[in-house]
Amino acid sequence: MLAITTSPLTARSFAPFGDVLEVAGAPDKLINQGLCGRFHDRARLDFDPGGRAGISLFDAQPRALPYRLDLVERHPEGSQAFIPMHEQPFLVIVAQDLSGIPDTPQAFVTNGAQGINFHRNIWHGVLTPLSHPGRFAVIDRIGATPNLEEYWFSTPWEVRGPV
Amino acid sequence: MLAITTSPLTARSFAPFGDVLEVAGAPDKLINQGLCGRFHDRARLDFDPGGRAGISLFDAQPRALPYRLDLVERHPEGSQAFIPMHEQPFLVIVAQDLSGIPDTPQAFVTNGAQGINFHRNIWHGVLTPLSHPGRFAVIDRIGATPNLEEYWFSTPWEVRGPV
């Protein structure tokens, strides 16, 4: 298997694929008599007009590194955000598109305080928490038409933590 | 001060005010080769056509019980969901409306694995985590027009934990 090494997730490195949802820097606004910082409108939500935004919960089984990656998927009808309902890091895998085929995947690990929003039609791995609980709120497109394209790698990738 | 006692948050008790966002019961669908349960579309998102859904982050200072409640607010232009990015309980205060004035408030404490979605125009207290970190993802209405009505109680309420 070919190997990929994980990197820490940062807004900058993730920008080609989506948004990092985190409390970082100064808030856009202080609310509630100064007791709460609002970091305003941090995800590019983008849904086909036939669908709409919805909030679902995902409960996923934890995985471990090294992780065998044989599948990525994408959603042509909408963006998809994952908000961890815990403070545990999770694994985020994405790939650029090369004429309809995913390029070499990139793997990131969150710092425990970050959510993510995959932009519409970005290739990504399935939800891969690295510890219990694998509980996330997901903001994605609710609609009646198919919204899933899968790509199975002919040779799986091994996703490794940094040495 | 008049006193209110908190109750554990349940979907049933919270139904007049909004949705409890939690992994409970059987998932609506198993995805990712059976490794992830999807609890589908669990929040009634409801935004004025002049606005749209957005994801923001809130970073709020923790409070303690007993808590002095002198203010509730409501958002005429849209629902507002709070997803805790941690596993700590938080305090949720709501009130029915009586001809434009909030009725006696009700107070709930989450179990650490629950988010909430306030339905549009429901009176509620400001975000009140009970411990660090006070970090939440918030799905609410993004728009240019005012979307906040406040009500200050002439006599504050004391919100107490159960004896």
Structure description:
The structure is a homodimer of 163-residue chains. Chain A is mainly β and 163 residues long. Chain A has one domain: Ureidoglycolate hydrolase (Jelly Rolls, Sandwich), CATH 2.60.120. Chain A is built from one helix and 17 strands. In chain A, the strands form five sheets. In chain A, strands 2, 9, 12, 14 and 15 form a five-stranded mixed β-sheet that branches. The first copy, chain A, has a five-stranded antiparallel β-sheet with strand order 3-13-8-16-6, with no helix packed on it. A three-stranded mixed β-sheet of chain A has the order 1-17-7, with no helix packed on it. In chain A, strand 10 and strand 11 (101-102) form a beta hairpin. The longest helix of chain A has 4 residues, at 11-14. The radius of gyration of chain A is 16 Å and the shape is globular. The model of chain A has no long low-confidence stretch (mean pLDDT 97). The interface between A and B is large, with 44 and 44 residues.
- The CATH architecture term of chain A is Sandwich
- CATH top level assignment of chain A: Mainly Beta
**Which two chains share the most extensive interface?**
A-B, 44 and 44 residues
Distance between the termini of chain A: 17 Å
Question: How many structural domains in the coordinates of chain A?
Answer: 1
Give the proportion of residues in helices of chain A.
under 10%
User: What ranges of chain A have pLDDT less than 50 throughout 5 or more consecutive residues?
Assistant: none
Total beta strand runs of chain A = 17
CATH superfamily of chain A: Ureidoglycolate hydrolase
Major beta-sheet overview of chain A: 5 strands, mixed
- Structural class of chain A comes to mainly beta
**Integer-rounded radius of gyration of chain A:** 16 Å
Strand portion of chain A, in percent?
over 45%
The oligomerization state is: homodimer
